[in-house]
Amino acid sequence: MRRAWTGVVLGVAGAVFLSALAVAQNSEPRSPWKYYPEDARKNVGDGGPAPKRDLTGTWAGESSGAGVERLVPPESPPPLTPLGKQLFERNRAEGGRGGITIAESNDPHVRYCDPFGFPRNMNDQIRSMTITTLPDRTFVLLKFMTIWREIWMDGRALPTNFSRGKDVHDPTYNGYSVGRWEDDYTFVVETTGIAPETWATEGGYPHSVDARVTERFQRKSKNDLTLTMTMDDPKLYTRPVSLGVVHFRWIPSQTFFDFTCIPSSVQRYLKEMADPAGQPNPAK
Amino acid sequence: MRTHAIVVSVIALALLTATTGHAQRGGRAPEGFLREGIPKMPNPPGPAPKRDLSGVWVGPIDNKPDRLPAMTPAGEALFKERKPYGSASRNDDLGASNDPFITCDPLGFPRNLLAHAVSSRGRFIFGSAPDRLLIAYEQQRVWREIWTDGRALPKAVDVRGAPESRYYGHSVGRWENDSTLVIDTTGVDERPWLDEEGHPRSSSARIQERYTRRDQYNLQLTVTIDDAKFYTKPWTWMRADFYWVQGQDFAETICIPSEGIEYRDTLARPSGIVIR
């Protein structure tokens, strides 16, 4: 079940898609500034071989309207330790446990538009991402919330101290990331130091600041990119947990529309609609 | 307080920003620093590489904009509805504000160039993708794309057949010469403010950025705004310097809505400060 506010926005996005279709049918001139999901859907096939060690460009994800499907959802149920179970039960994800409403949810993104943080921003609301590489790092720029991550490729080691003392590193919403090419088509990213108040998934999977997330970006052809995510967090999980496999398709126009959660709009929506409509149910 | 959680007190932040800004103008930089918080590069700058701004830059430094021109009646009307906070407030009630950034709504372009971090400066980096340049900003971790494929800017937004307006607008760029990049932007979403004072900018505004790389470490930025809907004439909104960042790194500076709203509701309002 999608979030209510998201549904509202998706309705708008749907209208955009439909208007784009109508434009196509009316043979109106195309604007290079607009994203036409039907064009992305028509772009079938692999497009030829993948270029070597190159992910640069703009990609469509499962919420793009381009017909891109998620390959594997996050592992369920997650293999939680007792502490992990305790934290997971605190997280009241909308739609979980028999239908938690938005009024009953404590998802910081649903309630406030707080940043997803990593790794949730790579497995929830996957609309479009652009990748660019500089000599010492790669950037992943996400269209949902218009935010970016940086992945260092200069050979540095990941930080390990996120608590106190000398050489401490503040936990961050996007964590600290390093990347390397495992072969000509597989880019592997390791991330840690992620702010623990964020959720790892839409379903409320918790993570600690010491969680280590591995992403494997595999470019199988010019048009196909697959991301496999695994989280190793021994404090909260009895073994590494799969955060799923998401698929991306190359967007021929390289254009996508903005999609952002606006905090003031959500507060107004909660006050006027969602909270009055959703009475808390202690049984959930 | 962690570095990324900057919204414990936006009002205090505004006051700090004003104070720091004053210190920047009047204070002397410590030894080894260009300005407070900006380490000087160890070597004299070499020549600017041709048509290349890639790297991390910090600023604005020594911003010297033109005086704001008179607003049109439509601009004045919108401006009167806006209640800035802190030192930008136009009345005695410093806390009474409807600044969208109180709840961490997007700053939008070009206000995001006026960094709201405590230092009043921010960092950005240029990158590239097919047919475009990318600019990633430290503040709010937002990014823009600048098309360089020769396309024309959209003539309108939010009408049939046209693209939607965007918080950071639609942009095209071109190299005027080997050291000057010119970016033209239009189609901004009208909800964000132009500045902390609450001046408006319209979706039909034409905003031009001129980045001139003087040498290896020094970049000048001039931003001009032509917005006939809200202002009686164009003007230079920013004329500032940016400097090469030693270490080429970023902090994570994000306004967290839940923290901003909690501050508003549990500290500001009970203290008699009215924010929205």
Descriptive account of the structure:
The complex is a heterodimer of chains A (284) and B (276). Chain A has 284 residues and is of the alpha+beta class. Chain A has five helices and nine strands; from the N terminus they run H-H-E-H-H-E-E-E-E-E-E-E-E-H. Chain A has helices spanning 4-25, 37-42, 82-90, 108-112, 263-277, and strands at residues 57-60, 128-133, 137-142, 147-152, 176-183, 186-192, 212-219, 224-232, 241-250. In chain A, strand 8 and strand 9 (241-250) form a beta hairpin. Chain A is globular. Chain B has helices spanning 10-26, 73-81, 257-268, and strands at 33-35, 38-39, 55-61, 122-129, 132-137, 143-147, 170-177, 180-186, 206-213, 218-226, 235-244. By secondary structure, chain B is an alpha+beta fold. Chain B starts with 9 loop residues before the first helix and ends in an 8-residue tail after the last helix. In chain B, the strands form two sheets. Chain B has a nine-stranded mixed β-barrel with strand order 3-4-5-6-7-8-9-10-11. A two-stranded antiparallel ribbon of chain B has the order 1-2. The chains are: A alpha+beta (284), B alpha+beta (276). Chains A and B meet through helix 1, helix 4, strand 2, strand 4 and helix 5 of A and strand 4, strand 5, strand 6 and helix 3 of B.
